Amino acid sequence: MSALGDEIKAMIASDGPITVETFMELALAHPDYGYYMNRDPFGAEGDFTTAPEISQMFGELLGLWAAEVWSTMGRPNPVRLVELGPGRGTLMSDALRAARIVPAFRAAVDVTLIEISPALANIQHEALLTSGAPIAWRATLSEAPEGPAIILANEFLDALPVRQFVRRGGRWRERMVRLDGSGQLAFGLSSDPVPDIKVDADEGATLEVNAVAHRFMFELGARLVKQGGTALFVDYGHGATGFGDTLQALRAHRMVDPLVNPGEADITAHVDFAAMARSARATGASIYGPIDQGDFLRALGIDMRTRALAQRAPPERADEFEQARRRLVGKSDGEMGALFKAMVVANRSVPPPPGFQPYPARQA
Ligand code: SAH
User: Fold this and answer.
1) What residue ranges line ligand 1, CB within 6 angstroms?
2) Band of residue 361 on the pLDDT scale cut at 50, 70, 90
3) Which of 1, 90, 148, 215 is the most buried (most CB within 10 A)?
């Protein structure tokens, strides 16, 4: 068992079972042993691969998207370009490079990276050394400088800890992590039912509620309404609230049991975009989407960009761009185009952002 696993067992032995939310929070963000806190989990060598790590095109298209959004916001100067959970800094690095073709935007931008992991902040620092933009690191959005903002978040919401409730005997009980008879971590249910969930469901159904993400959406929406701006969330998840257990742990690109060696695997839950939209809308912000990542990237011109990059590449590498494009926009199993969604939260004065305008996505 991992060091964190032993610590969690000791915690449960002395204080009783913990919620899935607490378990996930500890597994990802425990200051000493949390999964994100002291490693680089990305890429072929790591545990999972994200869109910006698949291809430079993802960050480039988001950089141009941000420049366009800035222009529809009335070209504020300065504009806060904020990224939530920037991983290796690849998205921001590609975005800033691509945005050079809009010099007035580049000149107006100051960048804030919201990151809890000191190890990843170091890697981001390296990645952005030559970006030429002023960059600051903060642990929470509330510490970012005030003013009109463009906020980017890829695979951020899925890392926020989720609560789970299971329908038993006509009541909801919270799913907990406890110790089994041999002292190992095991799932169980709270002994008391949870009185304040009014939703009905079939026996055995699982309901996920991301209270941390809801609070975050309230804070973000309120900021955008008061200070102006637009936020783009790209993540895997569903457009309509439903039932089901989506908690998953990934290690070296394989699914593993989330309770075995906590702190050594990435743990995520699908994002309930409808629920996130409800919280953000309650603040008075506008919501666009969610739409499929594939449709979004196509509307931003990924097909053209793929051809341009392939033409300039040496012949043996030309195919790489097409393979990356297909992985990002394809809608078959194992591709990201339909599993991942894009959603925007914006100040009401901002017109529909690129990719979310009411016309059908361009076809290849
Ligand atoms: N956006 C990157 C990384 C996604 S992984 C990419 O697409 O490659 C999730 C990122 O969010 C990591 O950088 C992780 O350290 C960070 N993170 C997780 N929880 C966070 C929190 N509560 N506040 C800020 N950053 C967080």
Assistant:
1) 36, 42, 50, 52-53, 85-87, 91, 114-117, 120, 154-156, 159
2) very low
3) 90
Three-state SS for 166? strand
How much distance in Å is there from the Cα of 226 to the middle of ligand 1?
A: 25
Compute CA distances 357 → 9, 87, 288, 338, whole Å.
51, 29, 9, 18
pLDDT (mean) for 222-228: 98
Q: Return the residue whose CA atom lies nearest to atom 16 of ligand 1.
A: 85
Spatial contact of 337 and 229, defined as CB atoms under 8 Å apart? no
- Give the pLDDT confidence of 124-152 residue by residue, as tens digits: 999 999 999 999 999 999 999 999 999 99
Q: How far is the CA of 115 from the centre of ligand 1 (A)?
A: 6
| Distance in angstroms (rounded) separating the CA atoms of residues 363 and 88 | 31
Of 156, 160, 293, 340, which is best to mutate to test ligand 1, by the most ligand atoms within 8 angstroms of its C-beta? 156
Closest C-alpha to 357, from 344, 347, 348 = 344
Length, in residues, of the chain: 364
What are the pLDDT digits (tens) for 273-300?
999 999 999 999 999 999 999 999 999 9
Q: What is the CATH number of domain 35-162+210-346?
A: 3.40.50.12710
Looking at residue 101, the DSSP 8-state letter turns out to be G
Residue spans of the domains in the chain: they are 35-162+210-346
